[in-house]
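Service request form, structural biology core

Requester: graduate student, group of Dr. S.
Request type: structure prediction, single chain
Budget code: on file
Notes: please return the result as structure tokens.

Sequence provided:
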Amino acid sequence: MAKKDHASETPATQLLKAHQVAFTEHLYDYVEHGGAQHSAQVLGFDPFTVVKTLVMQDQDAKPLLVLMHGNRKVSTKSLARQMGAKSVEPCKPEVANRHSGYLVGGTSPFGTRKAMPVYIEESILGLPEIAINGGRRGYLVRLDPQACVALLGAKPVQCALAE
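Core staff response, request fulfilled:
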């Protein structure tokens, strides 16, 4: 656990505060390629409630965000079908950084540089609380998943695959 228990403001936390969304901050020591599974383990959270923010693109290279359980993968075929796209694939890290304004590993769906459509795995919305990146590596915020719909217009989809 990091020595501090409060992180400095990020575009994500500024947006959450501006919309009076209640959240708690959780800092941890970031590990390269550790992902949501690592943060869940370190913080003692269920990986199903830790939500990863994935920057993807459609066949025309238009970016989009996918919010997925930390212990699930995205079925890109299923997602593309539900979006009405021909195909969907993850963006390369440097492209994802450019679209979101965040470093991969620290991507929050809140306060992104570019407005992008957001798709959320439907079962996430049934959880009482989720932990999601707060806009910096090693920093999660816990909040009501309905904030993703209210602030981001996140569209529910069913595209989760077991890891």
